[in-house]
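Lab notebook, bench 4. Still working through the backlog of constructs that have no structural model yet. Next entry is a single chain of 331 residues. Request: give me the structure tokens for it.
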Amino acid sequence: MVGPCNRFAHAATLGVAENPAKAYNPLFLHGAVGLGKTHLLQALCHTILRRSPESKIAYLSCEGFVNAYISAVKSRGYDSFRNKYRSVDVLVIDDIHFLGAGEKQASQEEFFHTFNALHNAQKQIVLSSDSPPKDIPTLEERLTSRFKWGLVAPLDPPDFETRVAILKNKAELHKVSISDEVINFIATNIDTNIRDLEGAIVKVTGLAQLTNQTLDLELAQEALKDLVSIKAVFFTINGIQEMVSRFFNISVSDLQSKKRVKSIALSRQIGMYLARTLTGHSLEEIGAGFGGKDHTTIMYAVEKIKNRIQKDKQFKELVTRLVQELKKKRE
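Model written out:
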């Protein structure tokens, strides 16, 4: 699922898959656990093989590379090891930060020469890590420098809209029906990584099946109470309205009214957007909280604010500041 959090990394990986050793070499992906690094690496390999089945690809973890090197040295099979990894068209190493953990001078030396041999032969190198090159501990400067020769692309935690898209996709894959209300509740409260989102889907659907209950908001809250009680910041429609009214110096009754004054209308739409993205309430419930508006009005407001956030940097900063104020209040 492509969103603002991974669009750059996805585009870069696709570019490499379509033109190995011509687009970005090396390609260095970095991000925390569960954000899709391995998924992108495997997709890259599949795409290259689909386009060029004769391509020789070596795909392995950094730990696997180090262990293979140690075994080769012990068994006096160094020449075979060297030929294996220096004769490929594409070398893909997952978790390259392992190379900077502990005392691995010999392994770093070997990878340095492997990297040079492949790069000089115009073969593609793709690496992933939990941190950018400069932050990998005890990594030799000459390797850090080479890792930055091509393109360094981050993967960030998914934003709310991407989390919703991921959850809907996972629900479809698991062949379960989950309401938007439950999807929004999970997306609001699980904001760490994709693995946690999938785990939440499994937990919620599992509880519903085991207890033969309807998969509603109450069941989702029960299933995720251990996770949510630690991480979640709960918001209410009233709390959002109070903060928005103070922020824009208007009354809560103005937000709930049908007044079409431009400043009030915009404040109301922002309030609707925040209620939709920060609470588990349905469109109908949000509409009721804003003076009996119908669900299409809420949908229009959410879409309008979302589009403006994407296009207007100052407006995005304003909405972000509002969210921060809301979180401070809840903390």
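Notes after review: The mean pLDDT is 89. Residues 91 and 201 are 35 Å apart (CA to CA). Flag for follow-up if needed.
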